[in-house]
Amino acid sequence: MMRLPRLLSMAGLTFLIGSAGCTVAPRTPSLPFTAAARPSDDVLAGGKLYSQHCAACHGVDAGGRGRAPSLHSPSVQVMTDDGLVQFLTDGDLRKGMPSWSQLSLERRWQLVRFIRQQQPAR
Question: Is the pTM of this model over 0.70?
Answer without folding.
Answer: no
